[in-house]
Amino acid sequence: MNNEIIVVKQLPIIQEQLQQIKADVTARVETALSLVCTEDTVKVVKDERASLNKELKFWEDKRKEVKKAVMTPYEEFEAVYKDCISDIFKKADVELKGKIDSVEKALKDEKETKVKEYFTEYLASKNITMPLTFECANINVTLSASLKSLKEQAKAFIDRVCDDLALIETQEYKEEIYHEYNSTHFLNVSGAITAVINRRKAIEEAKAREEERRAKVEAEEKAVEQVAEVLTPPTVETTPEQETILTVSFKVKGTKAQLKALKEFLNNGGYDYE
Predict the structure, then answer these.
(1) Which of 57, 131, 134, 218 has the fewest other C-beta atoms within 10 Å?
(2) pLDDT (0 to 100) of residue 244
(3) What sign does the CA torsion over 61, 67, 69, 75 have?
């Protein structure tokens, strides 16, 4: 390739004397910054700021003129360069990439088809009844991966599922665990087992709490009945003309519900108590 095809004949030369006015610009700005801004002087400060911005715009316009003058020949060169060189190469690259991608896709699809066929055959040989597809294995089929390694991944996946199902068969709640393994915790045997065990534990704890509550209620009811029996007045033989009044002193301990029931019993029986 000829290096002389593109050559810069002359570099741009920019003449400037900016260092000569730097001191004046600095002094001008420092004077403006030294102004005290109050309610009375705010208009003066605004005018000074506007004046500085006007001066800056003047110099910015000059800078843009220089940049445009420098960039114009380059932009003209770049347009010719794209037309004669880069656009041609880029178009060729796009076409070549399309051809390569088409062939590589065909090769990849062929490899994936062979792996899927192996997956289906090996799965059938294991007599697995649960629905399993090739996609469940999450095998990444690439051109760089060998067909042997892909088949090994498929085999390892199916073997793991077989081991999981065998483990599930040994569990107490195997039907529930299998449901979890095939749904919520898909292909996660430890997660499925843990979920079922925790659920069963929660059910048993709820039953125990209910039984404890019922036992407590029954005990309270029985205690009230026992107190009622104690408070039943003794049978005293009396003459028809006179009924003997007896006084009994005792101390009662019980729950709030029990004491309330005792009070109702005394009131309903017409007892005089303190």
Answers:
(1) 131
(2) 66
(3) negative
